[in-house]
Amino acid sequence: MKNLLKFGAFLFGAAFVLSSCGGGERSATTGWKYNDTKWGGFEKLDYEGQATGPNLVLIEGGTFTMGVTQQDVTYEWNNIPRRVTVSSFYMDETEVSNIDYREYLYWLNRVFGESYPEVYRNALPDTLVWREELAFNEPFVETYFRHPSYDNYPVVGVSWTQATEYCKWRTDRANEMILIERGILNINPEQKDEDNFNTDAYLVGQYQGDVRKNLKDLRTGGERQVRFEDGIVLPDYRLPTEAEWEYAALALQGNQTSEKDERISDRRFYPWDGNTMRYQKRDKSQGMMLANFKRGAGDYMGMAGNLNDDAHITAPVREFLPNDFGLYNMAGNVNEWVLDLYRPLTSVALEDSENHDLNSYRGGEFTQLELDEDGRPVEKDSLGRLRYRYVTDEEAATRDNYKTGKVYNYLDGDKQSNAFYDTGVHTLVSDKTRVYKGGSWADRAYWLTPGTRRYLDQDKASRTIGFRCAMTRTGSPSGNDDVGGNQFSTKRKRKSSRRY
User: Which residues form the Sulfatase-modifying factor enzyme-like domain (predicted)?
Assistant: First the structure.
C-alpha cells in the first residue's frame, strides 16, 4: 500500500477546465477570489468527476454477504460467510487477453530491450504450463500465446507478480495517452530506459517528456506541468481485492426488488440466477451453457455436433453472457488472481471484528516515498520509477490505527491469533501465497461459485489462471452525476450580507 506521500494519481475528470467558476467565485473561508493571478492564483477546478478508463466498468459498491453460503464440499471452512461493504470501484469487463499482454511485452522490449533485456524476459508468460505427462498439449505450448487465432483468448501462465507489474505498466500507458490527447505531450515512441513516461515520476517533475503545451500557471502567469491536484491522470490500475472480485462476480444489483429499498429477491450461487449452469429462457439459446467449465470426467466441451460450451480449453474473453454489472466470464474460462494474501482464517478474523468490514483486504505492506534530506523524492531508478521503502515497525509503533508496517499475519498467524504456519512442513501457506477465484475451463462447477477460494505462490503460474484489472473510484459512489450524500429540498430565508 502506498500512503499519502505517494505522488501518484487518484483523480481524473471528464473535463478539466480551470475556469473562473462563474466570473470570480470566492472562497467561503477567506473571501479571496479563486483562479485569479492577482489574488494569488489559488485554483478551484470546474471538475466533472472521474472518467472511466479503457475497458473498465463502474461497479457501484454496497454491502453483501461474502463467503461460501452453500455446502462447503471440501470441508476447508476457509471463507465463512460474513457481512461486509465494498466501496465503488472499476473493473475490467473482460479478462486480460493474449494480445493485451503481447502489447505489454512489445513495449518492454522496445524501451528496455537493449540495456535491460531481463525486464522483458522476466515478463514472459510461462508457456510450458500446458505440458502434461500423459497428454499431447505441445501444440498449445507453441501456439496459444503467440498465434493470432488466440489473440482474444485470456492470457495464462502469468504469475501474480507478473500480473501486478502489468497493472503498473498499464497505468502509465493510459495516463500518457490522456496527456497526449489533451495536447499536453506529443507522442514519443523513442523513449528508452529510464527516460520513459511514469505517472509518479512525471507528477514530481522527474520526467518532462516531449511537451506540446503545458497548463497555465495561475500563480505566476506562465506555464506549469500537470499536478496531482489537477485531477487529470487516472488512478492506478491494480488487481481487485478478493472482496471486490467476489462482490462484482455476484452482481446482486440484478436481483434488487426495487430501487426504493435495500432488498434483493434471491441469493446467487453463481454470477447468474438459479443453481443450473444452463440458460433457462425459452428462446433459441435455451439449454446452452452459461460458462466454460469441465462438466465431468473427460468432458471439456461435449459431443461433436452439439458442443456444450464450445470451448475445449479457454474461450474468447467476450464469450458467454456478461453478468448484471456487464462483466464477462466471472465464472469459468480462467481463474483470476486477486490482490489478497491467502490465510485460511481471514474470514474468522473479519467476523470477530467491527473494524475491518469495509473494504476487507489482507496483504498490507505499507510503503512510503523515499525522500532526500530536503524532503524531496530521491532520484528515480534505472527503469524510470520513483523509489519507495517499507514502513518500519518502529515508525508504525506510535500510530493508533496500525502498529506494524507489514500486516500479513494480523489475527491469523500472529501471537494474538495463536496460529502458526510451518511452511513446507505442515502447510503450503506462506507470505507468498495469493488467492485466486472464479473457476476455469478445467474445473468442476463447484469452483465457479464466487465464494470459493484457492491459492498459489505469487511467483508461480498455471494454464488455468489469468487475471483482470481494477481501479479505485474517487468521489461519489454512484457516478459523476451525483456528488454524494442525500440532498433535501429546503427553503432558506435570505439574510442581508455585505457585498464585495
Answer: 54-368
C-alpha cell at 465: 489462471
Q: What is the pTM of this model?
A: 0.91
Q: For residue 343, what is its C-alpha cell? A: 490465510
* Cα–Cα distance measured from residue 225 to residue 209, given in angstroms and rounded to the nearest whole number: 10
Sign of the four-CA dihedral 325, 326, 331, 334: negative
Closest Cα to residue 431, out of 357, 359, 337, 362? 362
Question: By residue range, what is the domain housing residue 148?
Answer: 49-182+232-364+407-483
Element housing 85 (H / E): strand 82-86
Round to the nearest angstrom and report the end-to-end CA distance of the chain. 46
Beta strand segments in 328-482, E: 335-341, 367-369, 388-390, 433-437, 454-457, 465-466, 470-472
DSSP annotation of 255: G
Say if strands 465-466 and 335-341 run parallel, antiparallel, or are unpaired: parallel
Whether residue 295 contacts residue 398, with contact meaning beta carbons closer than 8 Å, is answered with no
Spatial separation of the C-alpha atoms in residues 207 and 383, rounded to whole Å: 12
80-103 pLDDT tens trace: 888 999 999 999 999 999 999 999
In a domain? residue 19: no
Any domain includes 466: yes
Number of independent structural domains in the chain? 1
Q: Which of 1-15, 395-409, 417-431, 448-462 has the highest mean pLDDT?
A: 448-462
421 within some domain: yes
Residue 86 lies in a domain: yes
